């Protein structure tokens, strides 16, 4: 089985266990560590976020400090010049690096992206096949975290890479 076929088989297995897209409640978010929250999404106990359905990408794996998303760019992601819009790569990377940071947070802590820097290496098209955005934490402090990410295809070809700075904060209780 080629890497391309293996990636598509892994994606099908993950999709089979995911819940329908939705938004977790503040209680569901604040009552778990980041790693436990992401594990609950992967297990189908909590919904994956709607942006994944909008751009057709899913979480493939999550462990403390490392998260992988997969999607297959298609014509629905094209810009007017006939290539996949840069926002597709930026969204995959923002998801991967942000969730990598989230995977390191204790119960009761959340994050938001302060800055995302993306470098585009080559264009994606509907012929690219599945791509993976892998996010890895560089450092997590009390208020700020930094992570990096890369988008590659099943052959290891690099399409884009990014760094992010995230703000860490306590999740306020639900009202």
From TrEMBL:
Answer whether the UniProt record assigns the keyword Hydrolase to this protein: yes
- Annotated Thioesterase domain ranges read 82-158
Concerning CDD domains, the annotation shows:
PaaI_thioesterase (cd03443)
- Assigned keywords, A-Z: Hydrolase
Q: Which InterPro entries does this one have?
A: ACOT13, HotDog_dom_sf, PAAI_dom, Thioestr_dom
Membership in a protein family: Belongs to the thioesterase PaaI family.
Do you know which NCBIfam families this protein is assigned to? Answer: unchar_dom_1
**Protein name from the UniProt record:** PaaI family thioesterase
What is the species of this protein? Duganella aceris
């Amino acid at each position: 089985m080629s890497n391309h076929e293996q990636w598509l088989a892994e994606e099908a297995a993950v999709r089979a266990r995911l819940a329908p897209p939705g938004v977790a409640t503040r209680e569901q978010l604040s009552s778990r560590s980041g790693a436990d929250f992401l594990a609950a999404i992967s297990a189908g106990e909590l919904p994956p976020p709607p942006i994944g359905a909008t751009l057709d990408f899913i979480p493939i794996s999550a462990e403390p400090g490392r998260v992988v998303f997969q999607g297959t760019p298609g014509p629905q992601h094209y810009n007017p010049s006939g290539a996949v819009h840069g926002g597709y790569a930026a969204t995959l990377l923002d998801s991967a690096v942000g969730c990598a940071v989230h995977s390191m947070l204790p119960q009761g802590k959340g994050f938001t992206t302060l800055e995302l820097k993306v470098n585009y290496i080559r264009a994606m098209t509907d012929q690219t096949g599945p791509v993976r955005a892998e996010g890895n934490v560089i450092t997590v402090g009390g208020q700020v975290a930094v992570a990096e990410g890369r988008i590659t295809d099943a052959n290891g070809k690099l399409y884009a890479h990014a760094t992010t700075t995230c703000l860490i904060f306590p999740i306020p209780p639900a009202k």
